[in-house]
Specification:
Helix content is 30%, strand content 19%. It is an alpha/beta fold. It has one domain (23-140).
């Protein structure tokens, strides 16, 4: 097995690595499974979505919407930061509690096609997140 194959497989297991750095110096990437996207991006298929959306690092919650129909998102309709805390993270950067935000963040949505999601979407997403070179990744769900 090559190192790349091993890395791809390990990412399917939701690897956890304790953060040992200083959050004040870390770049943070936000990843959500809550069906969040920019209003200007194509809507997620609320039944069988295998893609993901890239959210620019300078986006605000006012530019976001949610397509997922598999959870009550009444609170999310009032404040997208419930599932995609981009504004809160930016505030933490401004006061020096977090070092920076990555240039891109990512979101996926609901699917029952878990094998395909693991084999394709998760692997592509992991590569894109890794390319952002974050020291910490904040994962949120819907």
């Amino acid at each position: 097995m090559t190192e790349e194959q091993a890395l791809g497989i390990s990412r399917l297991c939701i690897p956890f690595t304790p953060f040992r750095g200083k959050l004040e110096e870390a770049a943070v990437c936000l990843v959500s499974t809550a069906g969040v996207r920019l209003v200007s991006q194509p809507a997620f298929d609320t039944q069988h979505e295998l893609g993901h959306r890239v959210i620019p690092g300078d986006a605000t919650s006012a530019l976001l919407t949610v397509d997922d129909t598999h959870y009550d998102h009444g609170c999310v309709d009032r404040d997208r930061n419930c599932v995609f805390p981009i504004d809160r993270l930016r505030e933490l950067v401004a006061v020096g509690k977090v070092g920076a935000l990555t240039e891109s963040h990512f979101a996926t949505a609901y699917t029952q096609q878990l094998r395909d999601f693991a084999a394709f979407t998760a692997v592509r997403l992991a590569r894109e997140v890794a390319a952002e070179r974050p020291q910490a990744v904040l994962l949120t769900g819907g």
